[in-house]
Amino acid sequence: MTSTTPEQGLPLGVSDFASLRQDGLIYVDKTAMVHQLARSAGSKILLTRPRRFGKSLLVSTFESLFKYGLRDFQGLAIESLWKDTTYNVVRLDFSRAKRFSSSQEFRLRLDSLLTQGFGNLGFTYNPDPLQTTCDQLSEWLSECPKNSLVLLIDEYDAPLTACLDKPELFEQVRDSLSDFYAVLKSNDGALRFLFITGITKYSKVS
Fold it and tell me: How is residue 182 annotated by DSSP?
């Protein structure tokens, strides 16, 4: 006889919504709230919560919804509510850019993150001493159709938290991040939905 434990079926440590649903794990249906957040074109949301609060799973939920429609939402509340189409989705995990020892190294990590993330949709950076990655990304975004892109940013504050004990480096990293968010602000017409998560809300970033 096969024994079972209370933990079986619980999504312990699972932050991928599609895998959670496909594996039949327990999911508390919060998709009515997901619909409320995602239904309006041009929505821009910053969500700050402590660690282990389900932020990455929520990012993954939005990714599945906007990228694949209702594929992973059968039997959930949003199935009867969602009437929108699918979109090009860029998901950036800023925890991948939190290991650096100088502002130059951080800039390289940030540039790599942006080039890879937006590169999946056709963006390419052509090395130019007169243009940064953000400059060329801004030009690329300016040519995207209105409300055609969904951007999901997880752990936006990870690079800043990583250098809190180094004030000068912290300011330099914050300036680099501000450059990126300035690009988004000047091209917000291309964004159907922008969702950002983090633990702490830092000023002078966006």
Answer: H
Distance CA(206)–CA(187), nearest Å, equals 13
**What is the pTM (predicted TM-score) of this model?**
0.90
* Distance separating alpha carbons of residues 130 and 151, to the nearest angstrom: 27
Q: Which 8-state DSSP code applies to residue 157?
A: T
SS3 of 88-155: the string is: EEEEEEHHHHCCCCCHHHHHHHHHHHHHHHHHCCCCCCCCECCECHHHHHHHHHHCCCCCCEEEEEEC
Residue 206 banded pLDDT, cuts 50, 70, 90: low
Distance of CA 149 to the CA centre of its chain: 12
Domains for the chain: give ranges and CATH numbers: 17-198 (3.30.370.10)
